[in-house]
Amino acid sequence: MSDDIYREIILDHYRNPRNKGKLENADVTVHDSNPLCGDEIDIHLKVDGGVIRDVKFEGKGCAISQASASMLTELVMGKDLDVIKDLKKEDILENIGLTNLGPARIKCALLSLKVLKVGMVKYYSENDPKSAEQIKNESSLY
Amino acid sequence: MQRSVVNSYELRNDFPILKKKINGKELVYLDNASTTQKPYSVINSITDFYSNYNSNIHRAVYQLAEEATTLYEQSREKIANFISVRPEEIVFTRNTTESINLIAHSWARTNLKKDDGIAISELEHHSNIVPWQILSQEIGTRLEYVGIDENGFLDLEHLIELISSKKVKLVSLSHMSNVLGTIVPIERIIKIAHENDIPVMVDGAQSVPHMPVNVKNMDCDFLVFSAHKMLGPTGVGVLYAKKEFLEKMRPFMGGGDMIKEVFKFHTNYNEVPYKFEAGTPNIADVVGFGAAIDYLKKIGMENIRKHEIDLTEYALDSILSINHLTVYGPRDPNYRGGVISFNIADIHPHDLATIMNDHGIAIRSGHHCAQVLMQRLDVPATSRASFYIYNTKEEIDKFVNAIKEAGRIFKI
Q1: Which domains does chain B possess?
Q2: Which of A2, A37, A63 shows the shortest C-beta gap to B366?
Q3: Which residues are within 8 A (CB) of B157 and not within 5 positions of it... i.e. 6 or more apart?
Q4: ipTM of this complex prediction, to 2 decimal places
Q5: How do residues B134-186 score in pLDDT, each as one tens digit?
Q6: What's the Cα-to-Cα distance from B376 to each of A60, A91, B146, B156, B239, rounded to whole Å?
Q7: pTM higher than 0.90
Q8: Is B369 one of the catalytic residues?
Q9: What are the sequence ranges of the domains in chain A?
């Protein structure tokens, strides 16, 4: 029920999002929205030596989509691309502590991961088309 | 205010779905602007059709087909009678959206030309925006938007200026906003437009189900609406057009039933309205729509309107007392329908709808297919509760309590 969804940590990330804003000189910037409800997320990545050196997001939408994006930026900051490449939707739902969302709301929680994956595809398509293809195929799972 | 003349508590027994439990709570269905629930009489009429009359219409000479044809055409008569027009002026489509697309394709494409303006408003549903954008891209017509004021009322002065300066060649307006509930003074607009020889298309998707609409008095040239928003089945829409318009319009789709004679290289089309009903139509659901009209007539549209004014006033009074809550649209229930759009503090409508669902309450959240209006209101989305004949004040109390509960969860 809703008390389990809108816990302190979700409301905190919704009202005080981490890593929110634009990133100057980003290597990759990706935008996507959920046409159903109008949630919007932009993710900016600064990548160097196979590692995410900086990440910021912009967006508007419901508490779930925005908190999920905020928590995702914390999750991937400073991480190796190889690790992020394998992030699954289950990882994200676990990361935000919402494993019981219905089919409509799960899209809100996963929008930022979708944007991140598109960003990875964009990044890899220049120097590692094989990895780009792999992410693309796996991302179409949801 | 006159007391409600519709006995919602009694009527509810006619709607099987209202007995359904959601999360252990009785369903409180407040998304009627989107689609309405169906009474037994409608559900049974469809079962009865498939059980006892099913056959294709307008062609075969055996008894079953004659009976099916009669039922289908009786529905057309009921609907014509319901809005005070002639049966041959009623064309069945799939929904309001298809009806507007039909007008854009079969009337506007041949009667408008490059640089002709089409007046619509910031209140419109996407179905009364996108077909005109497509037309503009194809033949160079221009969209002219009529704005709204802070209470959600049309900028009539601007509309009148557009009409009298002959900048527009078609006025296409929603009669009642699906987001704000605003009722547009359509009779006055039609009168002014006709004085300037400009035809008017009325989107009645929200008005026809909720208030008396008399086309004879209104004198619009086109009126469109959907069965499923007025107790009828999905998959049936109505296009009313004056007969002299229909007769001059080119067909929408070609195929069976819309023809009189087909030769190798040309075809003589059927008379109206059949010219616009190509292929086997949605026969059973049209018959079901007839049953919905019977049901509504029994209650009376005046009574339905009074009931909704009553509910809307009660709901507005209740929710406006909640802190940090903003209601969009007119305050006076006499100038609006039973559609209430609102936002509370920083709770996103989708989060509010999720919390409402815990209480078995179905409200809509999002842009309501009116993104131009959302841009005008400068909000990404709103929550929307919309009422119908079976809604009660008790349900509105539950709805208001659930909003307060959301405030508690979000620590407002």
Answers
A1: 8-30+300-409 (3.90.1150.10), 43-297 (3.40.640.10)
A2: A37
A3: none
A4: 0.89
A5: 999 999 999 999 999 999 999 999 999 999 999 999 999 999 999 999 999 99
A6: 17, 39, 12, 17, 29
A7: yes
A8: yes
A9: 2-116
